[in-house]
Specification:
alpha/beta; 16 helices; binds magnesium ion; 4-stranded mixed β-sheet; Rossmann fold; 7-stranded parallel β-sheet; 11 strands
């Protein structure tokens, strides 16, 4: 397998941790792609002088300044990012945040590449399209800790021996709270995640548990398991990263530190394992606890099951409406409880349709965003 890495979203949390892992493994960094020019990107470009640098956006001035700083001309535009992912024999790490990541995933898979996937939108919004692209021969390896855990537990097991997938959830900063007590929480409170250090959208999605909802949909597509056989288990310590229950009643779970470098590394080397990128795990003295999710306080999980079962455009609507609602919440334009209300109402409002192409996904994404914007404005 190729070890020429294309790092999409190179300056983000997944991108920087990928580069750390890649350095340890001695992988070649072929492409560094980012949303726009930035001091961090310039620094990376200097650290990897042989890597092609690509930016999806940014002004002409910003791009020429970057070119001067790094001593080479960056590729430019969303198409340049997609082209970089579509060069054969590359290992594409997709850490793009947002719907732009879907095109890159599809292009990389069609080229027969392995995609280490950290972009949620690819499978949540574009599940049917990504599944079709996979038939071209590419390979999809999850970077998310839960799905990496499930992938590892399922390895070598025949599908008919699987009873259910158990996705663990930390429960976020509001675990154990009542619904009323969440009416006036601030973005600062919601951003404080107990066990994982993540970007703002995913932190809010953890607080509402929409993140787990998206992971249910992703697990369905990644492992071809029906929604009736996927469950969520709250586990505040984030040590059991997920588990599989088999028909004989056995469980296989994946445990370790909450350290994203481990699933990132596994996505690059699977099925082989490389040396531990972090510290050794020692469970002595640890107490692990498990509880059922509170569906009244966290309606997101139920909404996600419904959207997932409806299939077609519904998960894409859920994703787009959630992104709009989270942004509005972070800007103080929407209350915390309003996030799931906006998503549920957007799902009722946007007409269901089948998704066959990336353009279908883009169209439904745009429509859901405009519907969600209207709902949010109506609340204010
Ligand atoms: Mg996760």
């Amino acid at each position: 397998m190729s070890n020429a890495l294309v790092v999409l979203g190179a300056t983000g949390s997944i991108g920087t941790q990928t580069l750390e892992v890649a350095d340890k493994l001695g992988f070649e960094v072929a492409v560094l792609a980012a949303r726009r020019p930035s001091p961090q990107l310039a620094e990376l470009a200097l650290r990897y002088p042989d890597a092609e640098v690509v930016v999806a956006g940014g002004s002409t001035d910003e791009r020429s300044q970057l070119a001067v700083e790094i001593g080479r001309k960056p590729g430019y535009g969303p198409d340049a990012v997609i082209e970089a992912a579509a060069v054969r024999n590359r290992l594409v790490v997709n850490g793009i945040v947002g719907a732009a990541g879907l095109r890159a995933t599809v292009a990389a898979l069609r080229a027969g590449n392995r995609v280490a996937l950290a972009n949620k939108e690819s499978l949540v919004a574009g599940g049917p399209v990504v599944k079709a692209a996979l038939e071209a021969g590419g390979e999809l390896l999850p970077v998310d800790s839960e799905h990496s855990a499930l992938h590892q537990c399922l390895a070598g097991e025949p599908p008919e021996s699987v009873a259910r997938l158990i996705l663990t959830a930390s429960g976020g900063p509001f675990r154990g709270r009542s619904r009323e007590s969440l009416a006036n929480v601030t973005p600062e409170e919601a951003l404080r995640h107990p066990t994982w250090d993540m970007g703002p959208r995913i932190s809010i999605d953890s607080a509402t548990m929409f993140n787990k909802g998206f992971e249910i949909v992703e697990a369905h597509h990644l492992f071809d398991v029906g929604y009736d056989h996927i469950d969520v288990l709250v586990h505040p310590q984030s040590i059991l990263h997920s588990a599989v229950e088999f028909v004989d009643g056995s469980w296989k779970g994946h445990m370790g530190h909450p350290d994203m470098r481990v699933p990132i590394q596994y996505a690059l080397t699977a099925p082989e394992r490389a040396a531990n990128p972090g510290s050794w795990f020692d469970p002595v003295g640890m107490e692990l606890s498990f509880e059922a999710p509170d569906h009244e306080v966290f309606p997101a999980i139920g909404i996600a099951y419904e959207a997932g079962r409806a299939g077609g455009s519904s998960p894409a609507v859920m994703n787009a409406a959630d992104e709009m609602a989270v942004e509005a919440f972070l800007q103080g334009r929407l209350g915390f409880l309003g996030i799931s209300d906006v998503v549920a109402r957007a799902l009722e409002t946007v007409d269901w349709r089948e998704l066959k192409t990336v353009d279908d996904v883009v169209a439904v994404d745009a429509e859901a965003r405009s519907v969600a914007a209207g709902l949010i404005a109506g609340v204010c």
